[in-house]
Write a structure and sequence with these properties.
single chain; alpha+beta; TIM Barrel; beta-galactosidase, domain 2; Jelly Rolls; 3 domains; 8-stranded parallel β-barrel; 10 helices; 43 strands
Length: 759
């Protein structure tokens, strides 16, 4: 096998990095070496998820952050969009959904670290990359340079951020552990260093300072000043081709020591060969933009398969990644502004994005809904939470024979992270919009010494199997064809949870030659005694149950909880939510009453089931003639999104919400439609918009303050059968179409469990 270039025996010392204050008032020290982040000198592998506070109503922040925490996120990242805070010069706004101080304090209260992406240029598909119009007008090409006048404005902006975060930094006992400087910057390194110096001078002090690892800088960056963070997406809205998976996206589904992704930002950077900078191996492999989903631009209507997201996360982890950072993890809706606050070709950028919609098909959607990849990723995060300190010190090794192009679908894609004794085999047999056939390989070639001599990896499989895992003296798992999830420690025993890999026999081989085949279930499948008499128990969950598993602190200790519903725990108050009331069930281990049974059911007071309501929609206006396509300034040019004036040709329906509904159940309005562009309006206010990709649209009524009896207008522009936009297979109409298929009021049921001591 071929080792990666990073080796723990040659780790760069933490002293080589130019960080800020690293020690909290409680004495915890955050640092890094060339292998990983460190917490009090111990390898630390956190999980980061992006949520933009200005795109989520402030009243929803706590619930949103609790969903992140329940999903296994340990750090929340967010841009500070300058244009959201000072759209007009001298009129700063840090209130409401723009109250970054309250957001960061809420994150701390629910137990999350915070990474602040400072900008001043942020991108995030915001107008001017987040620079206010007056900054663009004043500084022109001098913006994003060391021009003194521009830096004076940036200093003032940074100082305003510092004032908001006063007392919330790591050095103060707060949650802010890192600042990202600028974003997607390709100029001289000196400008980034100037911005870092400005940030520190105004008090933006943190253990870590980061930058995006793309594009290449025009001058070398002195070592250790800024940690480069990388990314990878399953597919992007920014490409200029109108075909599926153009360019280099398939490479993100193959294990590789290469960190730089040449598929990101081809609109700005064009097609280019990817190459890591010479000093890359002296930094830990960290990411800030693993695609948690993808937006649609007007010319590229991406629709994500949840398996795309979990496969890429697994591949980057198996390639040596030591910080999964998702962009986005929670979607949102753009705030109101005096002008459009979203990126568009009309404002000189490369793409047209929806005016309000920034759902991003994220694990947690803009309406707070949990998507299938939320549960897929949580399973990976369980493993990272309990075994990341081991994994982080293991270099990645790659087989000598591995696929090097998208055309090779027969070679198994796998890697091994190992310290020479213990390790984890990463296998991925999934690629977006492609069928990778089943593959048969000998277990020995995977580093697994267990029968059978060969194993067949089914199509679509993405899994992690342990090798040489020594739980305790006398309990060593030499290999298993099942996925390690997490463990629960009790005074005299430990219960280890695994997930069955569908289509593969679950074999467990132990030191001494014992090999057992286990069947999945919710009971103990196998147990062993360690040399010290401690019992070690194995539970092998089915694939569906493994996606229903949570691990969270509750009533003074960590527990695993099993539910097919969404789950959050806030100050020991447990809430489970689901559109289907029959899914409101919950089992826990260990049980609060010290019962020894696995997954003891908890008594929930269930709400009365409420059925979906099909809302009548009055047809108010037929569509006008098809709009004549217009094209933007880019080369090659792509279609422009319709203007407000062109919506005069939209078909219009009116929907009146029921005169009564239980607002406490936070109902969703789910609209299925076909057409080109959809808009949902309340009076003159645009609530949400969407570029058609075949999926329905969810609107959280509570987040938009919609009350019983509210009247909405639905506008849909017709979609031409020959529209020059990329559409997912099977969604292009045979004839021009603008149709509101259905409007459903979806109840979201909630069951709450309060401990007896809770008020």
């Amino acid at each position: 096998m071929t080792p990666s270039t990073n080796n723990s025996d040659q780790a760069t010392s933490p002293a080589a990095f130019a960080f800020g204050s690293q020690v909290s008032p409680g004495g915890t020290c955050l640092s890094a070496d060339s292998i990983s982040l460190l917490r009090d000198g111990v390898r630390w592998l956190p999980v980061m998820g992006e949520l933009h506070y200005t795109r989520v109503p402030a009243a929803c922040w706590r619930d949103a952050l609790l969903k992140l925490r329940a999903g296994g996120i340990s750090c929340v990242a967010s841009y500070v969009f300058w244009i959201h805070h000072e759209e007009a010069e001298g009129e700063p706004n840090w209130s409401g959904e723009r109250d970054v101080r309250r957001f960061v304090a809420t994150a701390a209260d629910v137990g999350l670290h915070v990474v602040v992406r400072l900008g001043p240029w942020c991108h995030g598909e915001v107008r001017n990359g987040g620079l206010p119009d007056w900054i663009v007008s004043r500084h022109g090409k001098s913006a994003r340079t060391d021009c003194p006048a521009y830096l004076a404005d940036v200093r003032r902006h940074y100082a305003a951020i510092a004032a908001q975060l006063d007392g919330l930094l790591w050095r103060d006992g707060g949650p802010v552990i890192a600042f990202q400087i600028e974003n997607e910057y390709g100029g001289p390194a000196e400008h980034l260093l100037t911005l870092k110096k400005l940030a520190r001078e105004v008090g933006l002090d943190a253990p870590y300072y980061t930058r995006t690892g793309w594009p290449d800088l025009s001058t070398p960056m002195p070592f250790g000043e800024l940690l480069p963070l990388y990314g990878a997406y399953p597919e992007g809205f920014w490409d200029r081709e109108l075909v599926a998976m153009p360019g280099f996206y398939p490479a993100n589904f193959r294990f590789s020591p290469l960190r730089t992704d040449n598929a990101i930002a081809t609109d700005l950077l064009g097609r280019r060969d990817a190459a890591d900078s010479p000093d890359t191996a002296h930094y830990p492999f960290l990411t800030c933009e693993l695609g948690g989903g993808m937006m649609s631009s007007y010319h590229r209507r991406i629709r994500i398969d949840p398996a795309d997201i979990s496969a890429i996360a697994l591949v980057k982890l198996g390639s040596g990644g030591n910080l999964p950072g998702y962009y986005m993890y929670h979607g949102g809706v753009n705030p109101e502004g005096r002008t459009s606050l979203q990126e568009s070709q009309a404002t000189g950028y490369w793409n047209d994005l929806p005016e309000k919609n920034y759902d991003f098909q994220a694990p947690v959607g803009a309406a707070g809904q949990l998507r299938p990849h939320y549960h897929r990723l949580r399973r990976l995060h369980l493993f990272i939470h309990d075994y990341g300190h081991l994994l982080a010190g293991m270099p990645a090794r790659f087989p000598d024979s591995r696929p090097t192009s998208r055309d090779d679908v027969t070679t198994l894609r796998w890697s091994l992270r190992t310290d020479g004794r213990t390790g984890f085999v990463f296998i991925n047999n999934h690629e977006r919009l492609a069928t990778l056939p089943p593959k048969t390989i000998t277990t020995g070639d995977l580093g697994l010494s267990l029968p059978p001599a060969t194993v067949t990896i089914p199509s679509g499989t993405a899994c992690i199997w342990p090798v040489g895992l020594r739980f305790a003296p006398g309990v060593e798992l030499t290999g298993a064809t099942a996925e390690l999830l997490c463990q629960i420690d009790e005074p005299h025993r430990t219960t280890v949870f695994f997930a069955a890999t569908p289509g593969v026999q679950a074999l467990f081989a132990f030191a001494g030659g014992e090999v057992v085949q286990l069947n999945s279930g919710r009971e103990v499948a196998h147990s062993l005694l360690a040399d010290d008499g401690r019992e070690w128990r194995i539970v092998l969950l089915s694939e569906p149950d493994s996606r229903a598993l949570y691990k969270l602190p509750w009533l003074g200790r960590e527990r695993v909880l099993l539910t097919s519903a969404g789950l959050t725990i806030d100050k020991d108050v447990v809430r489970v939510t689901s559109e289907d009331v029959s899914q409101l069930n919950l089992a826990v281990f260990p049980a609060p009453d010290a019962a020894s049974a696995l997954f003891s059911p908890l008594p929930l007071s269930l709400p009365s089931p409420r059925a979906c309501v099909a809302l009548s929609h009055d047809f108010k206006r037929p569509p006008g003639p098809l709009r004549i396509p217009r094209f933007g300034w880019t080369t090659p040019a792509v279609a422009l999104a319709p203007t407000d004036q062109e919506f005069a040709a939209a078909a219009v329906w009116s929907i009146t919400l029921p005169a009564t509904f239980d607002a406490a159940e936070t109902p969703l309005l789910r609209i299925a439609y076909s057409g080109d562009v959809l808009r949902i309006k309340h009076g003159d206010a645009l609530l949400f918009d969407d570029f058609f990709n075949g999926d329905a649209v969810d609107l959280d009524l509570a987040r938009h303050g919609l009350r019983p009896g509210a009247r909405l207008e639905i506008e849909i522009l017709p979609l031409a059968s020959d529209a020059r936009v990329y559409l997912p297979e099977g969604t292009r109409p045979l004839h021009p179409v603008a149709n509101l298929v259905s409007a459903l009021l979806i109840p979201v049921h909630t069951a709450t469990l309060r401990p007896l001591s809770s008020p």
